[in-house]
Amino acid sequence: DSGVTQTPKHLITATGQRVTLRCSPRSGDLSVYWYQQSLDQGLQFLIQYYNGEERAKGNILERFSAQQFPDLHSELNLSSLELGDSALYFCASSVNWGLDEQFFGPGTRLTVL
Amino acid sequence: GENVEQHPSTLSVQEGDSAVIKCTYSDSASNYFPWYKQELGKRPQLIIDIRSNVGEKKDQRIAVTLNKTAKHFSLHITETQPEDSAVYFCAASGTASKLTFGTGTRLQVTL
To answer: What phi and psi, each to the nearest 5 degrees, are found at residue B100?
Structure first.
């Protein structure tokens, strides 16, 4: 157990819908990262927040947005869902924004039908 | 941006043999290189990492080497065991702390 929690574990929804994925970082970690992992694919970095502020952005679609709240938990919002958005979404956290080990949560498996 | 290439995509070794996975990166500013192991359906877990001021790091049966001039780094697993079977990802990170992952290597250790 990495100490990073993600909810829900599984999510099944229809195309065009909107969903929210939630992540709680390890106690004391200020950075939260979001990754997308499609079937048999690598890990695609989406976005990073540090202490409530957006720190780095990857190939995140405009239909996706995220935020980090004052209590440091983070939410990833996915809207106008498409079949291709079906994937495993991981959240990770680290102590700082620098060269720190990232601890991954168990992931949320999103299935868009 | 950073681009990380990883080879091979699949690797099959016999138990007890060594396994080597290689990665190259494009951004010369990258200075942190972690390796993650991901078992089927589970989260990626860090197994070893190396920073740019070090050329080699070892932890029991696992070692990582870094050649900054050539911009490549490698993972070495010795005396492989069945529980080493998993997908291994290399990654590179620069000052932005954004990790760029390789495409993964599926390691199969056969008895």
So the answer is: -105, 120
Please give the full DSSP string across B31-85, using - where no structure is assigned: -EEEEEEE-TTS--EEEEEEETT-SEEEETTEEEEEETTTTEEEEEE-S--GGG-
Which residues of chain A are modeled with pLDDT < 50?
none
Angle A32-A35-A36 from CA coordinates, rounded to 5°: 155
- Rounded to whole angstroms, what are the CA distances from B108 to A85, B65, B89, B103? 29, 22, 14, 16
Q: Which two tokens stand for residue B85?
A: 């079977």
Classify burial at A20, counting beta carbons within 10 Å of its beta carbon; exposed 0-12, middle 13-18, buried 19 or more: middle
- The partner residue sitting opposite B103, judged by closest CB among A42, A102, A103, is A42
What is the predicted pLDDT for the residue at B94?
72
* Coil/strand/helix, residue A84: helix
Cα–Cα dist B38/B89, whole Å: 8
Tell me the C-alpha distance between B47 and B42, whole Å: 14
Distance from CA of B42 to the nearest CA of A (A): 6
Q: Which residues pair with B34 in a beta bridge?
A: B49
* Average pLDDT value for residue range B5-30: 96
**φ, ψ for residue A85, nearest 5 deg:** -80, -10
Q: Are A101 and A3 in contact (CB under 8 A)?
A: no
Q: Which amino acid is at A78?
A: L
Interface test with A, best of B25, B99, B100, B101 (most A CBs within 10 A): B99
pLDDT tens, residue by residue, A79-102:
999 999 999 999 999 998 777 889
